Amino acid sequence: xxxxxxxxxxxIGMSCKLPRAETPEQFWQALAxxxxxxxxxxxxxxxxxxxxxxxxxxxxxxxxxxxxxxxKLFDASFxxxxxxxxxxxxxxxxxxxxxxxxxxxxxxxxxEQNQLETGVFVGADPSSYFLQNILPxxxxxSSTDQLQLIYTNSSIATQISYHLNLKGPxxxxxxxxxxxxxxxxxxxRSLLMYECxxxxxxxxxVQAAEPAGYVxxxxxxxxxxxxxxxxxxxxxxxxxGQGVALVLLKRYEDAVKDGDTIYSxxxxxxxxxxxxxxxxxTAPGVDGQIAVLKRALAMAAxxxxxxxxxxxxxxxxxxxxxxxxxxxxxxxxxxxxxxxPCYLGSLKTNFGHLNSAAGVxxxxxxxxxxxxxxxxxxxxxxxxxxxINLNASRLAINTTLRNWDCEAEPLRxxxxxxxxxxxxxxxxxxxxxxxxTAIKVxxxxxxxxxxxxxxxxxxxxxxPVALEQKRRDFAEFLQSCSEHEFDDACYTANIGRxxxxxxxxxxxxxxxxxxxxLLSPIDMPTxxxxxxxxxxxxxxxxxxxxxxxxxxxQTLPYFRQxxxxxxxxxxxxxxxxxxxxxxxxxxxxxxxxxxxLASCWIYWGVRPVLMxxxxxxxxxxxxxxxxxxxxHAVRLIRSTSQxxxxxxxxxxxxxxxxxxxxxxxxSAPRLPYTSSLTGLIVDPLALSxxxxxxxxxxxNVFISAVSEAARKPEWQLLCVAGPLETVLPTDxxxxxxxxxxxxxxxxxxxxxxxxLWQSGVGLDWKAFYAEPRQRIPIPTYPFDSQPHWVDIPxxxxxxxxxxxxSAVSDSIANDPFHNAVQMQPGLxxxxxxxxxEVEHEIxxxxxxxxxxxxxxxxxxxxxxxxxxxLATQIxxxxxxxxxxxxxxxxxxxxxxxxxxxxLLLRKQLAEQQDNAV
Length: 917
Hints:
By secondary structure, the chain is of the alpha/beta class. 41% of the residues lie in helices and 13% in strands. The strands form 7 sheets. Strands 7-6-8-10-1-11-18-17-12-13-15 form an 11-stranded mixed beta sheet, sandwiched between helices. Strands 22-21-23-24 form a 4-stranded parallel beta sheet. It starts with 8 loop residues before the first strand and ends with a helix.
């Protein structure tokens, strides 16, 4: 057994909303089956979505997109958000909120009851919904406070922290495509610095407009045919994707101690920035990537040859892929003595480029691969790009669903994410194996969870519809889970879910019985009162009480310890041996059983508002309230029993009981209880009087006190040890939990707990399960999502007519942003004005896209603030004007107007020569 892994972070929960994948399980099935989640549209479909016939006729219009079903839907009422406010919120904000809730539940933690300080580290794309749907809508703007609009479309992290009551650090991250992996890196650092105990991290990329294809520009990041071919010779770009994903993180040693399901370990991570050592702001940098890969390995204390899979950034662009492969080959490819291949893959070939959600989605893909010990295929690959040679390297592109085995070590993998602007992130993962850890889980002195085979299952929801869906989801889950998993599933459902007002609970002996219960129809549930007062009913001296005591001793460790500590071994031996008892021992043992059972309920968080007992039950109530010590109560019970016996035979001594009473120490009650003598709340002054204890009790006083308590609608009566069917009216029996149960059955206590919880009483599940079991993934909350959306405003017909008939010039003078452009910035080389007509036209294109009025022919495009995305637009406009295509490499080689003119002339001359031949 190895030592604990230093500075490791455990991934204990995940959530995702991706095309064709609403859960991590569905995500894995899509990956394993090689699903490419790209939709190709017909012309009729695109016309219906508002694409003009002219656009469809453009040969560069790609009729493909990645759709995200349900992006307009949100369960606003679940989070206490009004429908109107919800319609103002960016869909990325809404889906991240739901995703954060699901990730916590997937990890087995109830957000509303989570006692751990939990941080939030998330990011999203700039809000196209705010820009396109909200801001142009004058009716929306005029009908609400603008500050509200700003807050409901920003502050994503703090909104999650607020709505889920999470009190750790709350940070919003923006580093373009690497946003979510950077967020995970920061979350790991926060955990290692003990700023929080758990952390949610992830990202979202959701667009407001209905996906309807895009215009391809040569050398842009978008694919010409709707397919991403990462690292392939024919790679020419990616496809815009959409999705939301998050992970729940915890320090490794804490996750082991708390019995969490650990999906994978983060061994180390690193981030950096390329700086200016590259051709442009939006271009990747090989030096920065090499540096971040090496730093992450060093932080993880791992060697490159220990990594056998890398989830790459892999955008499938002609510029980005070779740079990424060069960096990977430098760090991971050439390892002396390393014979294990390292496979490469890219999620973008399946789901397109998820932008701010790309890193976390790639991470979850890799975590699932480690868990299933299989590497899913990277799609659309036929032959490696000729811009780099990997023949002498251990790197290889994975194109099939491959079994992933390693005999000597745990499986290990890496994930990369590189953002526009140069922020690089790299993270190292390791397969979780319990045998690796030497962390000692503290043994609880008193485990309290029942040891019997019967299991208690609780389910709740905020609406009856959601509760019924929850029952169906859990039944479906039980269809495929094992008996061992069923035990953990009940534990997770009880301790890892919030208790809402619509509840359903039952006790079943095994998985099959539970499944039958869930599939059976139930009456429409009613909303329960939150935490009604509980009255302990303490009575019983018959054989059913002793049967319950024997079964509880076997199945309830807390009961067993309390009874043994207080009653002693002799009485316990009498109970377990079913030895014939005299009246005195029967009464003492009945008292001890009542006291121990009630003590269990108090330990489990059920603190009574009142206790009502018969003669022996009052002694138990007196001890529970602190009036009497246990030993003093036993002495009083024995002396009273002897006094009654002597009274019957005529040999009683009046002073015998007085001596026992005077030796007892009485305290003021901490919990109220009724007197079995008067039926009223006990009078502390009367307790110290000997005559109070030796006066005979009548059963009708006890029944009257129970009936009086049952009349209070805000109270729920708990029959701790015995049914009361024969002594209570039928209409009051429904107010008493336990009157219809067979208290000799092993599941009696669990059935009481089920009825209590279902009536609205809260249970302390941590006390109930003092010995942690395994938290496992069970179905998460079934949100009742409804449309909340503000449509893009439609322009008046007159304005549309004016726009469609207006001639739009390419000159800077007619640019709608002309008033906002700036004069030429100060450059070292000085200003050289355009001379020829071609130079003037190209300078006009640069001015429009850069927002600079005066550009010289020798000015460097990147010095003026240009980047590759703008460069592709310039090339596209030049091609449209001169019918001469230029590549991105051409632009990088000669990034000036003068250089562009030279290239155009060369290409024109070459074309003329070809035509002449």
